[in-house]
Design a protein that fits this description.
Blueprint lengths: L8 H50 L11 E7 L7 E6 L27 E6 L5 E6 L9 E3 L2 E2 L1 E7 L5 E5 L2 E3 L6 E6 L8 E5 L5 E3 L1
Antiparallel strand pairs: 1-2, 1-7, 2-3, 4-10, 5-6, 7-8, 8-9, 10-11, 11-12
Length: about 210
């Protein structure tokens, strides 16, 4: 009589145990994996928005028939605004004069309908802009710590591919190093992602 090949009870128990162990490890690490992917995606969204502003500036795109002084992206670490960032066309100055611009985002002007045209992007999943840092000492206008800022405007002037970074209306001149935008997970359990902005026009995610 021919013997039939098969598994013994011990082999089946061991195989099932290995499958359960691997499945448990995958399920245990799934939340961390999802948080990591969300953080990476948020950092890429920041970098993509900066590149969009750069592309609009170099394409010399008009807004409402008026050519803005520049296109930019504003970041803020204030608790009411650190879950968002704004891409804008710098079309008005602090006196609400259209077509002039003042190197930062003006959301509204008193007594007039003139304002910078803008789109605000929200970071999902509780992800925040945690820090804004650069190669310079902070200006008295908007400091947040040593070489850190509470607000940054990253500006692209047509048709120049280089970048200007301001804190309020003042220009921050960096001779070396990069301005850094830090993106943080909700519980801070993951290492922060960094978006580096170089004055030469290079934008990268670290």
């Amino acid at each position: 009589m021919k013997k039939l090949a098969g598994f013994t009870l011990v082999e089946l128990v061991v195989s099932i145990g290995i499958i359960i162990l691997i499945s448990s490890m995958i399920l245990f690490n799934a939340p961390k994996f999802n948080r990591t992917m969300a953080l990476n995606r948020a950092a890429r969204e920041v970098a993509s928005t900066l590149r969009l502003a750069q592309a609009r500036a170099t394409q010399v795109r008009a807004v409402g028939g008026v050519f803005p002084k520049n296109y930019g992206v504003q970041f803020n670490t204030d608790v009411s605004k650190n879950n968002e960032f704004t891409i804008f066309s710098d079309s008005v100055d602090e006196t609400c004069t259209a077509g002039v611009g003042n190197n930062h985002y003006d959301s509204a002007c008193t007594g007039t309908t003139e304002k910078d045209t803008a789109i605000t992007f929200k970071l999902g999943g509780g992800i925040k802009i945690s820090r804004l840092a650069g190669p310079n000492l902070p200006l008295a206008e908007c400091p947040a710590g040593t070489n850190e800022y509470s607000t940054l405007n990253v500006l692209f002037f047509r048709p120049d591919p280089s970048i200007t970074v301001t804190c309020g209306p003042n220009e921050l001149v960096g001779t070396s190093g990069a301005f850094r935008i830090y993106v943080k997970s909700p519980d801070g359990s993951l290492p922060e992602k960094e978006v580096h902005v170089w004055l030469t026009g290079q934008i990268s995610v670290k």
